Amino acid sequence: VQLAESGGGLVQAGGSLRLSCTSSRIIFSINAVGWFRQAPGKRRELVSTITPDGSKNFADSVKGRFTISRNNAKNTVYLQMNSLKPEDTAVYYCTSAFVWGQGTQVTVSS
């Protein structure tokens, strides 16, 4: 497995989760990393990205609630998700260097 996500789970609306994306082969300090999500019956959509120089981008639907960060020493990218809503329920995937992880389920109950 070249990319691995973790940190998903079940949380109540208004709660928080932190997702992690790690890799043993792809160096995140020199490759952009993106988080996507896919809800049942919907297309996969971009949630957030972080570039090697630290530039960050967020979907309008998560701005002000989600943050993205990177720990170069651990070669890990985090997606901190606060004020979660039921519509955030989805499988969350990280991607980098044209490689995708297997995803982690996030379920937000109302």
Which helices and strands appear, and what pairs or packs with what?
Elements: E1 3-6, E2 9-12, E3 17-23, E4 33-38, E5 45-50, E6 56-58, E7 66-71, E8 76-81, E9 90-96, E10 99-100, E11 104-109
Parallel strand pairs: 2-11
Antiparallel strand pairs: 1-3, 3-8, 4-5, 4-9, 5-6, 7-8, 9-10, 9-11
Walk me through what this model shows:
0% of the residues lie in helices and 52% in strands. 30% of the residues are buried. It is mainly β. It starts with a strand and ends with a strand. The chain has no helices and 11 strands. Strand 9 and strand 10 form a beta hairpin. The mean pLDDT is 97. Strands 2, 4, 5, 6, 9, 10 and 11 form a 7-stranded mixed sheet that branches. It has a 4-stranded antiparallel sheet with strand order 1-3-8-7, with no helix packed on it.
